[in-house]
Amino acid sequence: MSIIILDKFISELKIISNYQVLLENENLEESKYLKAKYLEFKSLQNSLQQRQTILYRVTKAIVELQKEFFYKGPSVIRPLTLKDIADKLSVHESTVSRVISNKYIETNYGILPYKYFFNSKIGDKDI
């Protein structure tokens, strides 16, 4: 079993080389503006990378805690809460909630929203 986080858009986030040259511009006003925007870009890039890392960790924890589901199917899914994952990863529940919001996971049993794994009911679920 493997975990692959599709991050095509994050890996394509780059500064155009023409702007890189402008960062070294002699014009102090332009240079200040561009450097500020460059710092914003780097901050955004770092935030997106952190989000991907947390999504990977959450996915890995779900796979570990719901291992039977991935091998045997929906009839053996266990009750699981956001708090269970948050505690396991030492992050806040809201962090887990935000990172899985509007995200899906491809399994042998279909493409499911991450929130599917946080339902406390057991078995007899339609996928």
| H/E element order | HHHHHHEE
Give the tally of β-strands. 2
Tell me what portion of residues adopts beta-strand conformation: 5-15%
Q: Structural class of the helix and strand makeup? A: mainly alpha
GO molecular function: DNA binding; DNA-binding transcription activator activity; sigma factor activity
Domain RNA polymerase sigma factor 54 DNA-binding: 32-124
Protein name: RNA polymerase sigma factor 54 DNA-binding domain-containing protein
Question: What does it look like?
Answer:
With 127 residues, the chain is mostly helical. The protein has one domain (11-118). The chain has six helices and two strands, in the order ααααααββ. The chain has a two-stranded antiparallel sheet with strand order 1-2. α3 (28-65) packs across α5 (82-89). The longest helix has 38 residues, at 28-65. The protein is elongated and about 65 Å long. It starts with 7 loop residues before the first helix and ends in a 14-residue tail after the last strand.
Record the SSE blueprint:
Layout: H1 8-11, H2 17-22, H3 28-65, H4 67-72, H5 82-89, H6 93-100, E1 104-107, E2 110-113
Antiparallel strand pairs: 1-2
Task: Briefly summarize what is shown.
With 127 residues, the chain is mostly helical.
